[in-house]
Amino acid sequence: MSDTTTTAGVAAGTVTATTGRAMSDQAAGPAPDMLAWTCPAPLRDQSRVVMGHGGGGALSAELVEQVFAPAFGGPELSSTTDAAALELGGARLAFSTDSFVVRPLFFPGGSIGDLAVNGTVNDLAMSGAQAVYLSCGFILEEGVPIDVVTRVADTLGAAARTAGVHVVTGDTKVVEAGHGDGVYVNTSGIGLIPDGVDLRPQRVVPGDVVIVSGPIGVHGVAIMSVREGLEFGVEIESDCAALNGLVEAMLAVTTDLHVLRDPTRGGLAASLNEIATASGTGVVLQERAVPVPDAVANACAILGLDPMYVANEGKLVAFVPRERAEEVLAAMRAHPLGAGAAVIGETVAEHPGMVVARTGLGGTRVVDMPLGEQLPRIC
């Protein structure tokens, strides 16, 4: 691993050490005032929606499983992929929708307009599809400057042209002042799935190699640094990008990829746990192999975050048959968006549905599904 990366366990180790010292101090001093304690994570027994329900973790999954899936029904909803794979008139289509509520609207490396295009294009790409058409819905807050809306629309259009996708329909609504946050955007997309491509977690088997396309945690830290006015000695730019070209290069090597996922909300940890649960396999990571930029690792260590749980917007994780892993990795590294690709682990028959990481000290830790989102409103 190069000097520009460090292990994903820095933040976790820092928190553990701090907690241990705090417990020792409490044992020696007066009893803590339990009534003054607060829990930053939302409790799971909720009668109302909390921010964690939109974080891409366990609470989001419960909301889908307990509320939306039973209400909508249909076998298409049983899949845990980022886009629905459908057949229509003899063609295999991928269909996906996503809403974007990021704050701030503009950030280093991108904007809500870039996210709206790239997020949906990437969801389609994770099913192997090349995005063809997008719809775009704007929800505007009364009082937002027209030049801000124009700037968002311009960046959205530019991102669509870069990704090679056409925005063909849309809608605009305006809500009263104080009932929105400037601009919200929804995009839906349709793409074509090539013959022979079948990407879904149920195809994962023990022995598959896990590959990530590059350094993780960049988007979430970029958003946080702007939102909170934090400086880490170097500007961190979002990795926001359309991954359809990278996926196309991977499929040119072999259509026998097992599953792809773009680790957005909930970060790499959420994506790996979703795949492990759906496939019934265990995942073993080599923590030191997970590429984390120094700036991201330092920011996470300061703030007590684990980079594994921080959102990305231009990365993917792939589960690849072992016999094709070297070829796929080489193809990824030959593409600009996969230059930092790395093998980070493998699937095993043991501990099905569980993700564990082998640490640099020789131990093993569980990388659990996040409850909510460490950094809300990041996409």
UniProtKB/TrEMBL annotation:
Ranges for domain PurM-like C-terminal: 206-351
Official protein name in the record: Hydrogenase expression/formation protein hypE
Superkingdom, natural source: Bacteria
UniProt record, GO biological process: protein maturation
Pfam family, one: AIRS_C
Species of origin: Streptomyces laurentii
UniProt similarity note: Belongs to the HypE family.
Domain PurM-like N-terminal: 82-193
